[in-house]
Amino acid sequence: MTNQEPAPFSTERLDALPLRVAHADEMAAVLDDPALYTYTGGAPESGDGLRARYARQAAGSPDPGVRWWNWVLRVRDEDRSAGYVQATVRVRDAEAEIAWVVGTPWQGCGYAKEAAVGLVSHLTRAVAEEDVRTVVAHIHPDHAASAAVAAAAGLAPTAEWHDGERRWERGPDRNRDRNRDRNPDRDRNPDRNREPGGEAR
Fold first, then answer.
1. Cα dihedral angle (126, 123, 52, 180), rounded to 10 degrees?
2. End-to-end CA distance of the chain, in Å?
3. Contact (Cβ atoms closer than 8 angstroms) between residue 88 and residue 68
4. Are 122 and 25 in contact (CB under 8 A)?
5. Nearest Cα to 53, choosing from 83, 21, 18?
6. CA of residue 34 relative to chain centroid, distance
7. What pLDDT band is residue 148 in, cutting at 50, 70 and 90?
8. What is this structure's pTM?
9. Sorting pLDDT into bands at 50, 70 and 90, what band is 128?
């Protein structure tokens, strides 16, 4: 199967649209708060920086067995972007590693929890483009808000750690290499598949 873009999905208040380079300018404003990077490092990027990043992500993984799926979250009633969700899907393992980010002005509204629950449901339903049986996230141990989001989405903490973050998981336990084939620029920047700080979502 080709490394195609993901299908859109919706929740009660949000529309998750496949990431486009054209989203960069609006998303630069959404992500322009240093507090969002407390647990991941990095800093806000310009529209030009995000355009380059989004072009790489939209082009997809060079590995035909891996999908890089990215969605922009739009608040339906406001008709504007408020954050994003991501999934790196490893087809052979039927595993997706996910992340969610909501901009500071929209925090405290439950959008991240709603988006994460919707994302997990979308990935594990038959309508998703790939068979996903295991969903994981990596969360900083001090980030209680992100842990609450993961729990709401049905993930549970495991005994595994990577780069100082605990692995959370929903689905069958599998003995495999946990740390390969991630989105480009993922580690220590706001577009990696991890929650980079913020709210009790």
1. -110
2. 35
3. yes
4. no
5. 21
6. 18
7. very high
8. 0.84
9. low
Average pLDDT value for residue range 5-27: 96
What is the identity of the amino acid at 96?
A
> What single letter denotes the amino acid at residue 169?
E
C-alpha to C-alpha distances, 192 to 39, 53, 183, 187, nearest whole angstrom: 12, 11, 6, 6
| Contact (CB, 8 A) for 16 and 119 | yes
Nearest by Cα to 190 from 110, 122, 104, 108: 104
The single residue listed with the structure tokens 């483009």 is: 129
Alpha helices in 35-170 (DSSP H): 47-59, 111-124, 144-152
Asked whether the beta carbons of 183 and 88 are under 8 A apart, the reply is yes
Residue type, 174: R
Q: Residue 137 and residue 167: Cα distance in Å, rounded?
A: 6
Contact 136, 97 (CB under 8 A): yes
Structure tokens at 59: 């082009």
